[in-house]
Specification:
Strand order of the largest sheet: 2-1-6-5-4-3
Largest sheet: 6 strands, antiparallel
Structural class: alpha+beta
Number of strands: 32
Shape: elongated
Number of helices: 19
Helix content: 25-40%
Radius of gyration: 51 Å
Distance between the termini: 139 Å
Length: about 800
């Protein structure tokens, strides 16, 4: 179709109301365009040259256009241009071979030495895009914090506003590769990202990248990279455009947020003052400073409040970080911090504000070069000191040093340190207050416990106690060894519900109750029954919300060195372990009753034979239970350890400490108490036993037996008093008791006289009146002996009396 036919067809379409789309074909699509179209016109305005680009733009071949006036290609030519010369530039519509019109922008210029005119034309939208793109590129290139780089398909730089990372700041020249500017590793990483964009066409948006300059490797810069592929009009890749935005502020803000989050997450988990201080130092170094020290008032280490006027000399170092750093000679963990001279900045510190010193300022404040060398790490250029201020108390200070090529501290970092110091001070103060309360509870606990070791005719004992750690606080674990009449020994181990002062107080009340009940010489099951009644009364007295936490477990055992037997009962407590003289060990099989806070089920007494030289081990569950094991796993482990360590040649207290070191956690969540008792036996030669007939004449026989036995033992000095005591006890048994009746003597450091009958009648001590014929027997017994008493058994009662043997310990 030639130009005339196109014009006629378009005229017909116009008469029917149709119009062409400027710069597009019938479908509305934009025509492909690789470059400007060119044509050469003669002096009459006829086309004499027609380029391929012009053919692609209009669709007309050269033979269809050459020789014809260029005005024939123009649609809607303005009247003022019909007879005028070709303007230097402008915007017109050209006919397209398909019948559309194309909106183009053109420029003309004279061909040197002739009357011919060169016309260059391009679609108007391409020209506008080009102008806007050039303006955008100029604007981006003028931004100081935005670096733009255009790379070809080989990733060679075509255009950029980047400057070299050198002191002179020379611009990067076209033809440069990234490896010429950046360190090899950073250049390799960036090229991999750009190559992926070039190959896939998927853009990269705001990718964080840390780069180092080739000519200054120590200088690092945080960048945010955005990259997208460049394409020509036909969609073919022509290169990659990359925008690098200085991300230092965002990265700094992110680091500050991360640091604040780390402090919140890691500082304060421990309730130990030194551990909390070390956690704080570990978070800050090297994220905030190359070296960090935390100094605390000396009283804070002990859980006490610091003095109001806190300063150097009143503090000691609690934490240093990093642990692998080489510190100056004067900075040592646990060492006192030298007192610094008064200074305006130091006074700001005393008012709770962080202070920052340059090295010169610090030297000027200290005024002592040796002290500076003593305190300041090598290559330091900036120091920040922040007070640890909490609840109106200045607990200590954080000191951070920056060295080498790191940046000095900034104002926003001072604000950040103020927040961190505030949070760290609260954590340290919580640990300080816990330390004070924990020490008080542990001191109370230890004061309420019996002596660590005892030595009685029945056994030698050693008790060890390990308070809970890791924030659990002390609880109500206890042990006891109670000397009973007739050379017997009561062994107790118990565990009260809860922790802290309330548990320690409850433990003290239960221990006192057990000692009182033991003095009544109750059998183990009866004693636990009465103790459970007491615990239930205590629970009823407690506030309503605390009733569920009043309770506990208890094991009560009584060892008789004469019978060489041990009777025991358990209120929900783990069984004891018996280690025999031959080294074998086993847990004693007992039937545990309910814990002390419960009722409704009876307790059961278990009796076992115990050889002399055996070791009975009573313990609390903190020794056999922990997070990764229950009593089913912990009890065999304890039994094996006891069998290995309970040797006759080793002291019991040493054995107990070794067992706790082996079995307990480093920071146990529960208290652990252990009582070891190495049993003894009273030799048969130191006891004598007779059956008493139910005949009043047996009183004289009893005196004869006593005289003969005491003479044999060489205790003639006790003969008179013992005869009187035995006469009264035997007379009461015959008069008020029931057969069978027994008389027994036991010799040790005391002389024990026992009379047993089958009656459960409780004897009473009373003062007889002058006219009374009786009622003076027990009064005489109490006056002649050191002490006396009565105990009940399953088959009757025993009345006993003790007299000291002169010369015995």
């Amino acid at each position: 179709m030639d130009i005339d036919n196109v014009k006629n067809a378009c005229s017909a379409g116009a008469s029917q109301g149709s119009t062409g789309n400027s710069g597009s074909g019938p479908s509305g699509r934009l025509y492909a365009f690789d470059g400007p179209a060119a044509a050469v016109l003669d002096h009459r305005g006829a086309v004499v040259r027609w380029t391929v680009a012009a053919e692609e733009l209009t669709g007309f071949r050269a033979e269809e256009v050459c020789g014809r006036p260029v005005r024939d290609l123009v649609a809607d030519l303005p009247d003022d241009l019909r007879d005028a010369a070709m303007p230097a530039s402008g915007r017109i519509r050209l006919w397209h071979q398909c019948g559309d019109t194309i909106d183009v922008t053109f420029r003309t210029t004279k061909v040197g030495g002739s009357a011919e005119v060169l016309v260059l034309a391009a679609p108007t939208h391409h020209v506008a895009d080009h102008e806007q793109g050039a303006a955008l590129l100029r604007a981006l290139s003028a931004q100081n914090r935005i670096t733009i780089a255009v790379h070809d398909t080989d990733l060679t730089t075509v255009q950029t506003n980047a400057m070299l990372g050198t002191a002179d700041g020379r611009p990067v020249q076209p033809g440069t590769r990234l490896s010429d500017v950046l360190c090899a590793k950073d250049a390799e990483d960036l090229e991999a990202v750009l190559r992926q964009v070039l190959e896939t066409g998927a853009p990269v948006v705001r990718r964080s990248q840390q780069v180092s300059w080739r000519h200054d490797p120590a200088r690092q810069q945080a960048l945010s990279l955005s990259a997208f592929r460049l394409e020509d009009a036909r969609g073919r890749p022509t290169g990659v455009a990359a925008l690098y935005v200085d991300n230092a502020d965002q990265m700094r803000a992110r680091r500050h947020l991360d640091l604040a989050r780390d402090v919140a997450e890691r500082v304060g988990k421990s309730l130990e003052v030194v551990r909390t201080a070390q956690d704080l130092a570990d978070v800050l170094a090297p994220a905030f400073g190359e070296f960090v020290a935390v100094d605390l008032a000396h009283s804070v280490f002990d859980g006490e409040e610091p003095s109001k006027q806190l300063g150097g000399g009143d503090m000691g170092n609690a934490a240093l970080a990093p642990a692998t750093a080489v510190w100056p000679a004067g900075i040592k963990r646990g060492e006192p911090v030298p007192r610094l001279p008064d200074h305006p900045l130091r006074r700001s510190f005393l008012h709770g504000e962080p202070v920052v010193f340059g090295l010169d300022d610090f030297i000027a404040m200290v005024k002592d070069p040796q002290l500076v060398e003593y305190l300041v790490p090598r290559d330091t250029h900036s120091v920040m000191v922040a007070p640890l201020h909490a609840r109106g108390l200045t607990l200590g200070a954080i000191t951070a040093w920056r060295c080498g090529r790191s940046d000095p501290f900034t104002e926003d970092e001072v604000d950040l340190m103020k927040q961190i110091a505030s949070r760290g001070a609260l954590a340290i103060d919580n640990a300080r207050r816990y330390t004070r309360e924990h020490r008080a509870a542990v001191a109370l606990q230890r004061l309420l416990l019996p002596p660590a070791t005892t030595d009685t005719p029945a056994a030698e004992t050693a008790g060890v106690y390990l308070p809970a750690g890791g924030g659990a606080g002390s609880s109500g674990d206890w042990y006891d060894a109670i000397a009973l009449p007739s050379l017997r020994l009561a062994l107790v181990a118990g565990d009260v519900v809860g922790h802290g002062m309330p548990a320690s107080a409850t433990m003290g009340r239960l221990r006192a109750a057990i000692q009182t009940l033991a003095d009544l010489e109750l059998v183990p099951d009866e004693l636990l029954t009465r103790l459970a009644d007491l615990v239930q009364r205590l629970a009823a007295e407690a506030p309503f919300g605390d009733r569920d936490i009043v309770g506990g477990t208890c094991l009560y055992a009584v060892y008789d060195p004469v019978a060489r037997r041990c009777a025991m009962a358990s209120a929900g407590h783990p069984p004891p372990v018996l280690v025999r003289p031959d080294g074998t060990a086993e847990a004693v099989g007992i039937s545990p009753g309910p814990p002390l806070a419960l009722s409704g089920m009876p307790y059961e007494t278990t009796v076992i034979d115990v050889e002399p030289g055996s070791v009975l081990a009573l313990y609390t569950d903190g020794l056999v239970e922990r997070g990764d094991r229950d009593i089913g796993q912990g009890l065999p482990r304890l039994t094996e350890a006891l069998a290995a360590r309970c040797r006759p040649d080793r002291a019991l207290d040493e054995t107990g400490r070794a067992l706790l070191a082996d079995l307990a956690d480093q920071a146990p969540r529960d208290d652990a108490a252990l009582l070891l008792a190495r049993t003894r036996a009273v030799p048969a030669a130191d006891t004598a036993h007779w059956e008493i007939p139910a005949d009043p004449a047996a009183v004289s026989k009893a005196r004869e037996w006593i005289t003969r036995q005491l003479t044999l033992w060489g205790l003639d000095n006790l003969l008179f008093t013992t005869e009187l005591i035995v006469s009264e006890l035997v007379t009461n048994a015959i008069r008020y008791g029931r057969p069978p009746m027994d008389l027994r003597l036991i010799r040790h450091h005391v002389l024990v006289c026992e009379v047993t009958d089958s009656s459960s009648t409780q004897p009473r001590l009373r003062r007889a009146r002058t006219t009374d014929e009786g009622g003076r027997g027990l009064f005489l017994v109490s006056q002649l002996g050191g002490r006396w008493g009565c105990r009940h058994g399953q088959n009757g009662k025993t009345i006993w009396s003790e007299q000291a043997i002169h010369g015995s310990p």
